[in-house]
Design a protein that fits this description.
By secondary structure, this protein is mostly helical. Helix content is 76%, strand content 0%.
């Protein structure tokens, strides 16, 4: 990989991270409350702990936040079988 290409990759990762940090601050303060009702009563320690994940997964979280989706339900073989018998 050439030095110029490596520079572009580093710049792209820096931009992705910068956008993630800008997104994560309001998400951790307000957005997580909307996506997960259990997080409403969470402590600041929990919010600090999820901050790196919000930075890393900001496109996915932004999509869910804007669409108004709540926490996804658990999917496993037992729940799938129960859904079929209804």
């Amino acid at each position: 990989m050439s030095e110029q290409m490596a520079g572009w990759v580093v710049a792209a990762l820096a931009l992705y991270t910068a956008v993630g940090v800008v997104f994560a601050i309001p998400f951790v303060v307000r957005g997580v409350n909307r996506l997960d009702p259990v997080a409403r009563e969470s402590s600041w320690g929990f919010r600090v702990a999820i901050f790196p994940g919000a930075v890393a997964f900001w496109p996915l979280l932004l999509k869910r936040w804007l669409s108004g989706q709540t926490a996804p339900g658990e999917r496993n073989a037992h729940r799938n079988a129960a859904r079929l018998t209804r």
